[in-house]
Design goal:
The complex is a heterodimer. By secondary structure, chain A is an all-beta fold. Chain A is 0% helix and 48% strand. Chain A is built from no helices and eleven strands. Chain A has strands spanning 4-7, 10-12, 19-25, 33-38, 45-49, 53-54, 62-67, 70-75, 85-90, 97-98, 102-105. Helices cover 0% and strands 48% of the residues of chain B. Chain B is built from no helices and ten strands. Chain B has strands at residues 3-6, 10-12, 18-25, 33-39, 45-51, 58-60, 68-73, 78-83, 92-99, 113-117. The chains are: A mainly beta, B mainly beta. Chain A binds chain B through residues 32, 34, 36, 42-46, 49-50, 55, 87, 89, 91-92, 94-101, and chain B through 35, 37, 44-47, 59, 61-63, 95, 97, 102-112.
Amino acid sequence: DIQMTQSPSSLSASVGDRVTITCRASQSIDSFLNWYQQKPGKAPKLLIYAASYLESGVPSRFSGSGSGTDFTLTLSSLQPEDFATYSCQQTYRTPPTFGGGTKVEL
Amino acid sequence: QVQLVQSGAEVKKPGASVKVSCKASGYTFKSYGISWVRQAPGQGLEWMGWISTYNGNTNYAQKFQGRVTMTTDSSTSTAYMDLRSLSSDDTAVYYCARATNVDTALGPWGQGTLVTVSS
């Protein structure tokens, strides 16, 4: 299975900060990389698909980049509702696998 | 709006089976497949498998082969996930999510179903 490693596992930030989360795949996955946001007690929500495409309805302060093995999720200006856990997922090879998550805390 | 609504929480004894349902609305059910993902307490997300709502084809994670069965009922726009021979390691929140194919992004997701396995 392809291993997905996220860093950091958690970070502290303030409203208005620029935040960058990294996801690394154990082998090349082209651009088959998705990002999800999950709040406590809630289901994940798709933010970014195919590495850089913003899901409909997701604010433009979210962006994704990368290809091959290294990917980033960037929040340009952190808002109060953005404090959550973010997970990456590869869909290049079955089984699709997720990173361990990055918790963004105040 | 597109919505997936799952069945309620379950408590099962070790060795038992559980069947979780996922009722879809707001779109043409047979146009998108359904994936199942679980999350153990305090842990990350784990993909279990995918089913085509068009023809019933399935793709299960090897870890669950022989122990999981995914089915759909297009007359009620409902997908089901049946997991057998439960152990305490299966205690988790189980999610369904819409996915065109096994290699596409997941969204939207159901609200989750907590399955607790305890003697």
